[in-house]
Write a structure and sequence with these properties.
about 40% helix; 2 domains; 11 strands; 3-stranded parallel beta sheet; globular; 10 helices; Rossmann fold; about 290 residues; alpha/beta
Length: about 290
């Protein structure tokens, strides 16, 4: 078993991004500017945004957090999105999900200008991805692709099983893994909560990508020897023994499954850091494309 160390790989990519930003600056270019819009006080969202801002600082990228109360109206949030769309100093911005129930997430996503949509969620960018045109890839799938490349994992002709059909992870990574290029050329099976005989399907996977949100869902009897596993799921469970007051669990029972895998991501420290660094790369691309 070889650990797919997202933390280590992300650190290496951050160095590369920092060097690129230095070159931009030395050539008289603009320092990339990422803005994160944070609505409310969701603990996980605050943690994610803080990590993204810290990563920006580390690579020399400008960053700003726009904090809004969870009582903000949809109209007020859309107005802020419009302001950021028009702000020439802002290269890319994200609206951290989830949003309060009274706000339509799809409407907010569609309001973001595609050229500033560094999360890669806008329908225009998803459409370009489907057509294999240059665009911002959704950050988590992009992070998985980079891990595959950095660890030279063979994908050609492999059976890739994806669990979870969200527009953020499952559906886009299924599309990307089936592309006629590397990483890709897989035969992809997209499964979800309504899939019948799921364990029979996962046992045929050469590459298993799990984005379900159910802690320790994948057990050793559900995978074959030599499988490559990407665990996207992350669930917080209260744990008084931890300084943070909680422990993070992935969708894969890591300790029970790891010895059957050829490659596997841990939680935390696997896909998560790669998601953040992919956001940085998208923002850098947005700044360079101006």
């Amino acid at each position: 078993m070889q650990l797919l160390d997202g933390k280590k790989t992300a650190a290496e990519i951050k160095i590369e991004v920092a060097e690129e930003i230095k070159r931009l600056k030395s050539n008289g270019g603009k320092i990339p500017h990422l803005v994160a819009v944070l609505v409310g006080n969701n603990g996980a969202s605050i943690t994610y945004v803080d990590a993204k801002i810290a990563a920006c600082k580390l690579v020399g990228m400008k960053s700003t957090i726009v904090r809004l109360n969870d009582t903000v109206t949809e109209k007020e949030l859309l107005k802020k999105v419009d302001e950021l769309n028009k702000d020439k100093d802002v290269d890319g911005f994200i609206v951290q999900l989830p949003l309060p129930k009274h706000i339509n997430e799809k409407k907010v996503t569609e309001a973001i200008r595609p050229t500033k949509d560094v999360d890669g969620f806008h329908p225009s960018n998803i459409g370009k991805m489907m057509l294999n045109l240059p665009t911002f890839l959704p950050a988590t799938p992009f992070g998985i692709l980079q891990l595959i490349e950095r660890y030279n994992i063979e994908t050609n002709g492999k059976h890739c099983v994806v669990i979870g059909r969200s527009s953020i992870v499952g559906s886009p990574i299924a599309n990307l893994m089936s592309r006629n290029s590397y990483p890709g050329n897989c035969t992809v099976t997209l499964t979800h909560s309504r899939t019948v005989n799921l364990a029979e399907i996962t046992k045929t996977a050469d590459i298993l990508i799990v984005a379900l949100g159910k802690p320790h869902f994948i057990k050793p009897e559900m995978v074959k020897d030599g499988v490559v596993i990407f665990d996207v799921g992350i669930t917080r469970i209260a744990d008084k023994s931890k300084k943070s007051g909680y422990k993070l669990y992935g969708d894969v029972d890591f300790e029970a499954v790891k010895d059957k895998a050829s490659f596997i991501t841990p939680v935390p420290g696997g896909v998560g850091p790669m998601t953040i660094v992919s956001l940085l790369k998208n923002t850098l691309l947005a700044a360079k494309d101006k």
